[in-house]
Amino acid sequence: MKRLLLFLGTGHLHAQLMEGGKIITQHEFIESAKGRENFAAFLQEAMHPTYLLVDLIEEDFRQETVPHLHGRSRSALLQRKFEQFYPGTPFTQATLLQRQKTGRRDDVMLFSGLTNPALIKPWLDIMLAQQTPLVGIYSVPQISAPLVKDHPSNHLLLISWEKSAGLRQTYFSDHRLQISRLTPARAGATFQQAVVEELARTYQYLKSLSLLPPGQTLDVRLLGHSHDLIELQLELPRSADMRYDFVDLADLAILHNIGQHHIGHRFTDSDASQVFLHQLAAHPPRVHYAHPIHTRAFVLQQARYALNWASGTLLFAMLLWGAAGLWQSGSDAAEAASLKTQAQRAQDDTQKITVTFPNTYAPAADMKTGVSIMRKLDQYNSEPGDILHPISAALDRYPQIELGNLAWGIDAATPGVSGMPGMSGDSQAQFIIIKGQLTGFANDYRATLNYLENFQHDLTAQGYLSKMLDKPLDVSPGGSISGQREMQTNAPGFSLKLLRRPSP
Known about the structure:
Nucleotidyltransferase, domain 5, about 40% helix, Alpha-Beta Plaits
């Protein structure tokens, strides 16, 4: 994917188009009417995601401790700080350095701002007019932290040289950016001369701000060309206050300090601009100076890419679905033809078999008569188990009754049917005659009769109509109790007729 990288110094803009970490083309634009016109023409042909890197004197840094807040409260607090520190510029940002471990656990923030927006606005207006997809606005100090991550010192000064800007000195405490100074390139001055002149001043400046603890040695990492670094080793003063670490840009191009990231550029001097541009291309910071109005074209471009990707994916899925449907329809057609052939074969076989069937035609009147007879017979198709099961349960509840004989049948003319309650003389009824004996009562005839009567009531509750045919004791006015007492030397016997209507 192609990316457009812009490097803005004082009065000068460098542009280079990159793809896969390699430089495709480079252009230089001077701060003038002609330079801005050329830049606008260049942007018409380079509508790629654009990253703007600035290296300006007018960049201020302030460290502040603020309450730990969230959401709108945090946004309102940061906005108040921006208005307090940088009231004249929209290019501000706040970076969380750390959260305190004691007390209220406040946030230690680094506020920064580009205090002279007039240096950026002309170029930014051109990008807005051309609808350039600007990703963000970044500064050299902001992306320098990865270049010192491998250094063990907790008090480190990083020095680099950008020929279009000047000598950049960035101070890190515990590998966190604290402050940065840019000294403009003096006419005729070399990189070595600028380092020798400014390093002592910067050391005193850090001491005056109490950023460097008393007695603490300042470690200095210098990025430059090997020839310039050799001269610096001879020219820099030796003292217990500072230690030097010389890093050749050529070595940095082969193996970048932040990891395996090769820089496809041949360094001929100590200009480290390409180091920072490649660092920005590889790992752009999340926080930057641009506002939503500046990055609107990039957001819309990404949205279009996402919609195109989604549309392409949907189209591909529909094509696959259509192809699968065509294949399935062909398969279904072949299967349908096979089924049609089998159905025709089965129909032909059926016709052959039907021809051999005997003539079994019956008149409708005969069929109606047969159905009526079957329905009538179904009324008497009661299972014996359905009738006898309730009687068996009742006998279980009356253990002093010994069953002697049981008869079952259907007979409308059976004696006693028409005389029983709820039954007419021509009723079709299912009857059961129970014969048995009552044991365990001795000569207590009243208890015997009551026991038998309770047994009848139990059967009545089960849906039977009962009639006593033979009682264990004849208590009628014409009966002789004494005679029966003499005759019943064994257990008294009885017979009981139970009736049950057929199911409708």
